[in-house]
Each structure stands twice: as structure tokens, then as C-alpha cells.
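Sorry, explain these C-alpha cells?

***
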Amino acid sequence: MIPTLTSRQVAELDELTARNFGISVEWLMEAAGWRAAFMCDFPTAVVCGPGNNGGDGLAAARHLHRWARLVSVCCVDRSKYGGAAAGELAALEKAGVEILDDLRLEGAQTVLDAIFGTGLRRPPEGKYAEWIEAINESELDVVALDVPSGLDGDSGLAYSPCVRANTTITFTLPKHGLVMLDGPRVSGEVWVGDIGVPMQALREIGVDPPKGLFELSEIFKLPHR
């Protein structure tokens, strides 16, 4: 049985990995962005919200741009980026990529959903809700980053609205909400990607990872439960 992570454990893991193992949030964000971009085989619109989930999306957009698979980068509110995410935004702009304040999906076959991560605890509102609804109505293939936006990462409750993903790429270990309540219904296929978090760091937050978790592959598909 593969263990899952709560949102509290995710935050603890990020802090511990930086403090005890010298692996910064910036490094983890870059690795997560590469993993997310790898899952997008077709022309992709990247849709980013605030926080580190949005930063992961911005990192993914830069790789998709390098691979000539980026159609657009749409940010709900770029003013809310700080820290590592702000650095990813600056790097993307230096690469010559236009950052859009409106949602543009024309020409895309895939949407990379990086609006909300594991910390969401209430229904999306305003522009966030409008963009989630538009993604669902687009009928494009949707790849969610870590968890579908609108899904409570701990309880598995899908708020209204919630992204309906075809595929979810989650990092290090599955998030608890992906396998609870509505999680399996809105997450599609769930893939777990290695972003370099030491196994010892997981043990130090009380999680015992299966032996050889990423021994055979740097990414694996989570079996349906």
C-alpha cells in the first residue's frame, strides 16, 4: 500500500527538505515543473493560480516553451507571486513568454491546471471559479498539477466548481484527497513523480515510503483503489 500525504505533511516536508538536506523550494519547484511538462505531449495552455502550485505551473510553462509545446500562460493574479514562484515568473518573462491576465485556450489540445494546490479549504470564487468552469467547458484534455483545482487535498471533497482532470501528476507521494471521497472521480489517471525529496525526509515526518519507491522508474501510475 502506497502512503498518502496530508497538506500539513507537504508543508512540513518542504521545510524539512530545505533545512536538513539543503534542497530548496526553488529546486523542488523546478523539478515539479519539469515533471508536469513531461505529462503534456500536445500544444498546451498553462493556467496558474497563486502560491507554489502556480509557481510549479510557471516552471512547467518554461519547459513547454523550450519544447515548442506552449500555447499560452494565463495567470489569475500575477501580483500574488512571491519567493520561488516570483522567480519562476521572472525566468519565464526573460525567456520571452507573454504572461496573460485573461484565459486563452485557443489552439491548445491540453490544459495544465496549476490554479490551486493542496491547501484549498473553501469553494473557489470570482475569477478563479470562472476559469475553472471555462476549463471544464472547453472539453480539452486536462492535466492537473498535484491535485485538481477545487479538490480539498485532505478530505477529497470536490468543491463547486472543481476541475475535472483526465490526468493528475502528483509529486513524491499521492495526496490524501486524491484517494478519498470525490478524489478518484475528478482526478482521472494519477501519476506520481519523483522530484528529489530524500526518503529520509519522509521518514522524519512519520511517513514510511515503500522500499524502492522510485527504484525502477522516476514516475509511476497509481493503481485505482
User: Anything to note?
Assistant: The first helix runs from residue 7 to 21.
